[in-house]
Structure formats: structure tokens, C-alpha cells
Design a protein that fits this description.
The chain is of the alpha/beta class and about 220 residues long.
Length: about 220
């Protein structure tokens, strides 16, 4: 049974979120601020964190950064009253996987959490499959039906990154840092060039599409 850490200084929000998560079969642990959330995370295995931005002592921005530093693969969902685009961009740049604005529908929250947990399980494997397409990280091969396709290394890594967490938005800076490395000194528009090439290579498939999220970045939508 997955354990969800809920970090929010609003007691009513914590109680509501935990109630619906428990009713949906999850275990929950709580924290009233970012500092306490880190202590809880260090003391107990956690599968996903729901965190608010505006918290005392340590805010959600800092908590997100610290959790991502401790575990790059831990699913994070920001639950906040704020909804401006720049704040969403900042959240994604710091490493959050999804973003839900208050007031929220508890059923949508639990659905998003289940989707994130599913993406996390996919992302930790060496093979990703959607429809007739299989990406093999060990051989860096792409199999489309019965055909095998070899992509340039960076194109493969970019596709694998997007496909590992379908539906998640990645900014250009995130993709540059995670695929080209933080010391990369080139133009971040290289991401656009590689995305264009991937779209052209897989133009005839209906198994997935790479979407541009205006003002944010890119995400891959897979079709089962």
C-alpha cells in the first residue's frame, strides 16, 4: 500500500486530503511545514509527496528542491492556492511532477496521485512500452512493431525521458540539465530541434505524440 506524505500548514486541508487518500486505499503521513516534512521523509519510507507552496519555516519551493536532491525519482505534486503560469514554471524547474490548484476536487487529486505512481513505476524500468513501440535503455534501440530503429543518442535519451513519465511537462532547462548536463553551454533551442526530429521520425505512428505546452515546455502523451 503506497504511503503519501501530505505537507500543508492548513490543518483542514491536510485532514481533507488524508481522508480521501485513506478512503482510496493509501496510507498517509502529515507535516505542517517543509522542515517537518523532511524529517518525516527521513524517518519513514514515502512513495509520493503532496506539498503546499506557502508554508512557514520552510516553504514548498525549498522543500521541493531538497526532496528532489535527496531522491530524483520521488513523485511530487504541488497543491497550492496559486495558479499563475510563472509559478507553475518555477515548480517544474525545481522538480515537481504535477500541479493542482486550490480549491480542488478530491477525486481529481487521487486520480493524479495514481497516475504519478504509475508513471514512477514506468520510469524506473529499463524498458518502456506504449502501443507498438518499445524503448530499450540497455541497447538504446527503438522497436516499432517488428522493425528496429536506431536513433542518435541524444534523441533516444530525450524520447526515453519524456516517455518515462507520460503526461509530465518538462521545461527546456530541465531537459538540457538532465540530458546534456548542467555544464552544457549551447543554445537551449537545441531541444526544439531534437523534438522536431522526433516528431518527423514518428509522424506516422498513433502510439504517442509530443505536445508543446505553451509557456512551459514539452510533454509526451502515450496512447495505449
Amino acid at each position: 500500500m503506497p504511503t503519501i506524505l501530505v505537507a500543508d500548514d492548513d490543518e483542514n486541508i491536510r485532514e481533507l486530503v488524508c481522508l480521501f487518500l485513506k478512503n482510496d486505499g493509501f496510507e498517509t503521513v502529515e507535516a505542517v511545514d517543509g522542515k517537518q516534512a523532511l524529517a518525516v521523509y527521513a524517518a519513514k519510507p514515502v512513495d509520493l509527496v503532496v506539498l503546499d507552496i506557502m508554508m512557514p519555516i520552510m516553504d514548498g519551493w525549498t522543500l521541493c528542491k531538497e526532496l528532489r536532491r535527496a531522491n530524483p525519482d520521488l513523485p511530487l505534486l504541488m497543491l497550492t492556492a496559486r495558479g499563475e503560469t510563472w509559478e507553475k514554471v518555477k515548480g517544474f524547474e525545481l522538480g515537481t511532477d504535477d500541479y493542482l490548484t486550490k480549491p480542488f476536487d478530491p477525486l481529481e487529486l487521487t486520480a493524479r496521485i495514481r497516475a504519478l505512481l504509475k508513471r514512477y513505476r514506468i520510469g524506473t524500468t529499463q524498458t518502456i512500452q506504449f502501443g507498438n513501440i518499445i524503448l530499450d535503455r540497455q541497447t538504446y534501440k527503438v522497436r516499432v512493431g517488428t522493425e528496429s530503429l536506431t536513433l542518435p543518442l541524444k534523441e533516444f535519451e530525450l524520447l526515453y525521458k519524456l516517455a518515462g513519465t507520460p503526461g509530465q511537462v518538462y521545461t527546456r532547462d530541465q531537459l538540457i540539465d538532465q540530458i546534456w548536463g548542467i555544464d552544457y553551454a549551447g543554445d537551449d533551442r537545441t531541444i526544439d530541434v531534437h523534438i522536431k526530429r522526433l516528431r518527423e521520425r514518428f509522424a506516422n505512428t498513433s502510439d504517442f505524440r509530443i505536445e508543446t505546452v505553451r509557456g512551459l515546455g514539452y510533454r509526451l502523451e502515450a496512447h495505449e
